[in-house]
C-alpha cells in the first residue's frame, strides 16, 4: 500500500445545513441544525449519506456551540460527529463559519474576528488532523451582503461602509484560517463555496448600476485570491473604509494554489437591475454554465459546483428537473474544458425558513432536501442516487481527467498520505503557482 495514490474520482457531495445567523438585533439565533433535527439524528443523517453512495459531505460543527471564547472550546459534539464520519469513511468538506459567529464575537463588524477565527480554525485542524478539505467561511460575499448591505442578519446594517467592513473582515478571516490550517495540514485543499451571481440591466439607463454590481460580485474572491482590482473597485473599497495596508494584505496573498473555486447556483442567483439601482430576481437567464465560464475565466482555478437545490413543487418533479438541468450544465462546461471536479445537491434534508432567507423564525419547512425531515427519501434523492451510480465511473475516464489529491479518512495514516503531506509542506516553503488540482 506504500505506493497507493490518492483517489482521483469526481466528488459527488451533499451537505448538512449549518447556518447560524442572528436576527432581531442579535437577540435571536437561527440554527438550521437545530431546526432540521440534526442534533438528535446526526447518526441517522450520516447513514443516509452512505446509503446514497455519496462520498463527500459539506459539514461543520456549530460555531456558536463549539467556540465559547478566546481559546475556549466545547468539542463534545464535534468529537462524536467527526468520529462517525471517519468511521464511515465519508470525506468532510469542513464548513467552519456559515453566516454567523458566537455571541461573544458580536458580528462581522468586529475587527478582532479574523485573528480570533484563525485561532479557532487551527484548533480544529489540530484536533482533527485527518481532515483535509475545508471551506473556512461559507459564501463570503452573501454573508457580507445579507449582514451589512441588506440589513437582514447579524449586524443588520445597510450601507456601503458596513458592507466593506464586513467583507474585509470575513475574507481576511478566511485567508488567515487557510494559513493556519496549512501549518497543521500542509496538503489541505480549500473549496471556496461562493455564490455565483449576475446582474442584468432591464433598460439602457440601468446598464451603469448593473456594471457596478457585476464588478462587486467578484470582490470576495478577488481579495481571497489576491487578484489586483480595477481602479473603480479599488476606489470603492478605499472610499468605504479599507486601508492601503489592508488591501496589500490581500494582494500579497499566495494561497491560490491550494484552492478549488466552489460556486453555488440557484434560480435566485440572477437579478434584474432597474434604473434606480434596485434589483429583483430575474430567474434563470444565463444559467450555471455561462456564469461559471465567467468566474473560471477570471480565476483559472478548478471548479466545484458546491450548492444548488429547488423546491419539490406542486407537480413533484420540479426538483428532479432542476437536478437534471444543473448536471447538464456541469457536463457542458466540463466538456468545454473547464475543470469541474465536483457537484453538490444542498442539502441532505429539507431546510427551514429559507423562504424568508432566515429573516424570520417561523418554522416553515422548505422541501429542498434529498430527504424530508422525517428522513424519507424525496424523488430528487432517488434521482441523485441514480445519477451518481450512472456517472461516477464514467467521468474519470473522459479526456479531461483531473487528479484531486484527496486522502480518504481510512487512509490518513498510510505511508502515501504521510509522503503527500511531507511534499506539500516542502512546497509551502517554496511556493508554486500551480493549482491544487492538476491534469492527470
From TrEMBL:
> Which InterPro entries does the protein's record reference?
GH, Glyco_hydro_1, Glycosyl_Hydrolase_39
Pfam families associated with the record:
Glyco_hydro_1
Name of the protein this chain belongs to: Family 1 glycosylhydrolase
Q: Which organism is it from?
A: Sphingobium tyrosinilyticum
According to the entry, what is the taxonomic lineage of the organism?
A: Bacteria, Pseudomonadati, Pseudomonadota, Alphaproteobacteria, Sphingomonadales
Amino acid at each position: 500500500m506504500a505506493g497507493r495514490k490518492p483517489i482521483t474520482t469526481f466528488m459527488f457531495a451533499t451537505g448538512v445545513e449549518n447556518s447560524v445567523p442572528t436576527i432581531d438585533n442579535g437577540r435571536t439565533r437561527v440554527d438550521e441544525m437545530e431546526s432540521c433535527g440534526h442534533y438528535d439524528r446526526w447518526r441517522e443523517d450520516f447513514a443516509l449519506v452512505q446509503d446514497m453512495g455519496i462520498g463527500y459531505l459539506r459539514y461543520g460543527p456549530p460555531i456558536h456551540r463549539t467556540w465559547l471564547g478566546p481559546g475556549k472550546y466545547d468539542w463534545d459534539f464535534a468529537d462524536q460527529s467527526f468520529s462517525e464520519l471517519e468511521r464511515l469513511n465519508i470525506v468532510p468538506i469542513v464548513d467552519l463559519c456559515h453566516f454567523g459567529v458566537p455571541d461573544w464575537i458580536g458580528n462581522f463588524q468586529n475587527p478582532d474576528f479574523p485573528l480570533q477565527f484563525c485561532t479557532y480554525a487551527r484548533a480544529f485542524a489540530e484536533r482533527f488532523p485527518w481532515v483535509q478539505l475545508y471551506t473556512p467561511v461559507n459564501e463570503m460575499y452573501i454573508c457580507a451582503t445579507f449582514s451589512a448591505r441588506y440589513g437582514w442578519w447579524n449586524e443588520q446594517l445597510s450601507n456601503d461602509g458596513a458592507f466593506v467592513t464586513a467583507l474585509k473582515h470575513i475574507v481576511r478571516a478566511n485567508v488567515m484560517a487557510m494559513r493556519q490550517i496549512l501549518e497543521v495540514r500542509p496538503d489541505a485543499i480549500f473549496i471556496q463555496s461562493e455564490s455565483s451571481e449576475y446582474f442584468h440591466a432591464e433598460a439602457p439607463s440601468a446598464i451603469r448600476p448593473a456594471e457596478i454590481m457585476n464588478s462587486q460580485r467578484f470582490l470576495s474572491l478577488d481579495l481571497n485570491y489576491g487578484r489586483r482590482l480595477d481602479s473603480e473597485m479599488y476606489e470603492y473599497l478605499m472610499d468605504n473604509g479599507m486601508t492601503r495596508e489592508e488591501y496589500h494584505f490581500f494582494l500579497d496573498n499566495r494561497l491560490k494554489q491550494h484552492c478549488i473555486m466552489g460556486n453555488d447556483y440557484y434560480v435566485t442567483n440572477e437579478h434584474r437591475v432597474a434604473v434606480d439601482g434596485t434589483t429583483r430576481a430575474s430567474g434563470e437567464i444565463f444559467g450555471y454554465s455561462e456564469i461559471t465560464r465567467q468566474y473560471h475565466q477570471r480565476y483559472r482555478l478548478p471548479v466545484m459546483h458546491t450548492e444548488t437545490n429547488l423546491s419539490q413543487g406542486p407537480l413533484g418533479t420540479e426538483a428532479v428537473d432542476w437536478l437534471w438541468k444543473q448536471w447538464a450544465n456541469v457536463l457542458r462546461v466540463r466538456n468545454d474544458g473547464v475543470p469541474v471536479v465536483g457537484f453538490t445537491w444542498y442539502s441532505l434534508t429539507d431546510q427551514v425558513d429559507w423562504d424568508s432567507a432566515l429573516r424570520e423564525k417561523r418554522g416553515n419547512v422548505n422541501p429542498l432536501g434529498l430527504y424530508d425531515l422525517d428522513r424519507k427519501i424525496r424523488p430528487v434523492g432517488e434521482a441523485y442516487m441514480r445519477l451518481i451510480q450512472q456517472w461516477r465511473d464514467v467521468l474519470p475516464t473522459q479526456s479531461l481527467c483531473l487528479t484531486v489529491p484527496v486522502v480518504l479518512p481510512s487512509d490518513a495514516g498510510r505511508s502515501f498520505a504521510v509522503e503527500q503531506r511531507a511534499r506539500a509542506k516542502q512546497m509551502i516553503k517554496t511556493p508554486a503557482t500551480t493549482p491544487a488540482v492538476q491534469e492527470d
